[in-house]
Amino acid sequence: MTGHPKAAVCVLGTGLIGGSVLRAAAAAGYQAWGFNRSESGAQAARADGYDVVSDAEAALRRAAERDALIVVGVPMPALDTVLSDVKSFAPDCVLTDVVSVKAPVAAAVHRHELSAHFVGGHPMAGTSESGWAASSPDLFKNAVWALSVDAGVKADPWTRVARLALDCGSMVVPVLAEEHDRAVARISHLPHVLAEALAIEGAAGGKLALGLAAGSFRDGTRVAATAPDLVRAICEPNAAALLEVLDDTLRVLTAARDSLRDTDSLADLTRAGHDGRTDYEDTRPWAITGIRPGDHDWLAKLAEAGRRGGVLESLD
Questions:
Q1: In-domain check, residue 128
Q2: How far does Cα 285 stand from its chain's mean position?
Q3: Contact, 102 vs 181, CB < 8 A?
Q4: Which regions in the chain score pLDDT beneath 50?
């Protein structure tokens, strides 16, 4: 925790990610409450001792009264409805989100005329499960939390959102929205697509294949256990970037197929794949220091630092 006075936090959507934000914020000392469209979901949260209602207007009017930081935790298909409610009942509150794409969210926020106080966000954490029951106050511990540093982002809202991310146990990665979306297409959305394909091919082998399946199949298909509609909500809004990386992947697989057919060898694929995994294991974040929100050219400086693998571990 960063030791600053805690502002209020209102979370809209208390599934896995939003629910975890609510739990983590409350554990960090924030006054926190939430909204969930499903009354059964709201009841489940209340049964665990959290202040969650199924009345968006009530939650947002309270946010407006207490100058709360609003965290949008709904999937993309529900975003416009939620933003319309924010515009109606709490348009002057600092606003962030935890949706897995950033450029489409920023565009929707702009359509609803809420950009003045908005900072896009994406905590890089999750499981194959969903809903309030899957949420945890520890989900973001030692995770990275991407925060937008696009042109127009203001220092005070950015600082409030960054403090929340830090207090939830994360490190902050400053990033431009379009660069974020291209990156997560490769390391988040593509793995979902490949996991689905691997699960399909494994099941096509029948009971014998599935009975012989062990660690590599289990690990490779883990995220295929995610609810199909949720996978679509994660991947489809990032279609352009995902199509680009799918084309790259198909070229890699086609070259591997041709090499195996023509030379009985997968040498190029395995060497390059091993090198890529080694690069991942060797990557270590470094602490960004000396850049203060609001300083001259702070957005561009943070974007460049994030591009080079830097993270913010503190704002103090």
A1: yes
A2: 18
A3: yes
A4: 1-3
Tokens 């949008």 sit on residue: 72
Within a domain: residue 4?
no
Helix (H, G, I), strand (E, B) or coil at 88: helix
Q: What is the CATH number of the domain that holds 272?
A: 1.10.3660.10
What letter represents residue 266's amino acid?
L
Is residue 143 helix, strand or coil?
Answer: coil
pLDDT at 26: 97
SS3 state at 96: strand
State the pLDDT at residue 3: 43
- The sheet with strand 144-148 has its strands ordered as 121-123, 144-148, 171-175
Q: Calculate the CA 35 to chain-centre distance.
A: 19
Contacts of 231 (CB under 8 A, 6+ apart): 192, 196, 223
- pTM across the whole model: 0.91
Q: How far apart are CA 52 and CA 12, in angstroms?
A: 9
2, part of any domain: no
Residues 80 and 25 in one domain: yes
Identify whether residues 66 and 98 lie together within a single domain: yes
Confidence at residue 1, expressed as pLDDT on a 0 to 100 scale: 39
